[in-house]
Write a sequence for this structure.
């Protein structure tokens, strides 16, 4: 599996520009706010969303400055969701550094996330791209709906796979799909190509979240760089456990429900032991692999190119990543 640096080689310079614009746009003349803005730049990791905007733009023709601007906007929106997610999940660590809520409390974290969203839409409006502005606005609404659905279903031990996929489709896959649409649209692609790349981005996003959810159960904080086990501690079922509760024998299912119902802080470790003796983790990863394969089939509408190959490799990276 290639490392992201090599996959991003063709968009290295635009990604540097994305980082530069991001930092300049969120900079504040209030020292405390500016300190927090500088702190969250340490949360940058894979830069997957802006990379998807840029790579799909390349794969559909050529990059424009519009792509760089929109890539910056989607990274701002994504960063805001990370700051808010850490509040919702009561996480202490992200990218091996303290979360904003851990450092300064929930109020500061919520307000900083709002600060980022406001900057994102102000900058997006300045680009003069109505289609992009509307799509990013609608996608941000969809992300919030997904997060609200997840909160609504906390403690719902009867959550179905359909409900799980509805949640992650909205909170995660909607943004990766939008990134690909933006890249294709502003490169002048036709409706068929835009639709195919939207499906590619959506499936990559679904697979990304499944893998993320599996890592929350079986990963190591040293590798992932963030607080783990928070899904279970918050009473949120993810695909491995949804599958386990549906297929376990009555005694094992009853044991799992007893652990979940206790609400104690050790539930994640106990549930991991149950899952490790089942096929549910393998089932989740197999589902993620199928989603990656579906994603890559949508790339067949594109002419052969290094950018198309990079998009296929990025999808592969999403499956095999350890953080």
């Amino acid at each position: 599996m290639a490392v992201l640096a090599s996959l991003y080689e063709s968009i290295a310079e635009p990604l540097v520009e994305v980082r530069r614009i991001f930092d300049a746009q969120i900079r504040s003349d209030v020292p405390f706010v500016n300190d927090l803005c500088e702190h969250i730049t340490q949360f940058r990791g894979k830069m997957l969303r802006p990379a998807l905007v840029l790579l799909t733009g390349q794969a559909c023709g050529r990059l424009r400055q519009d792509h760089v601007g929109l890539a910056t906007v989607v990274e701002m929106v994504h960063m805001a969701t990370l700051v808010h997610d850490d509040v919702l999940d009561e996480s202490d660590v992200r990218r091996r550094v303290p979360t904003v809520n851990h450092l300064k409390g929930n109020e500061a974290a919520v307000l900083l996330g709002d600060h980022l969203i406001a900057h994102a839409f102000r900058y997006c409006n300045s680009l003069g791209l109505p289609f992009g502005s509307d799509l990013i606005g609608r996608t941000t609404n969809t992300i919030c709906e997904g997060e609200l659905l997840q909160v609504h279903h906390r403690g719902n031990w009867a959550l179905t796979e359909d409900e799980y996929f509805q949640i992650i489709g909205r909170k995660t896959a909607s943004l990766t799909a939008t990134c690909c649409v933006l890249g294709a649209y502003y490169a002048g692609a036709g409706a068929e190509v835009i639709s195919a790349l939207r499906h590619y981005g959506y499936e990559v996003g679904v697979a990304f979240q499944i893998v993320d959810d599996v890592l929350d159960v079986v990963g190591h904080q040293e590798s992932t760089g963030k607080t783990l086990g928070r899904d279970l501690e918050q009473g949120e079922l993810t695909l491995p456990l949804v599958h386990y509760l549906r297929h376990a024998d009555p005694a094992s299912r009853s044991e799992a429900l007893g652990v979940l119902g206790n609400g104690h802080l050790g539930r994640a470790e106990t549930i991991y032991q149950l899952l490790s003796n089942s096929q549910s983790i393998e089932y989740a990863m197999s589902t993620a692999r199928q989603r990656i394969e579906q994603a890559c089939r949508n790339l067949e509408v594109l002419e052969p190119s290094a950018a198309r190959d990079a998009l296929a490799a990025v999808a592969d990276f999403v499956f095999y990543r350890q953080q």
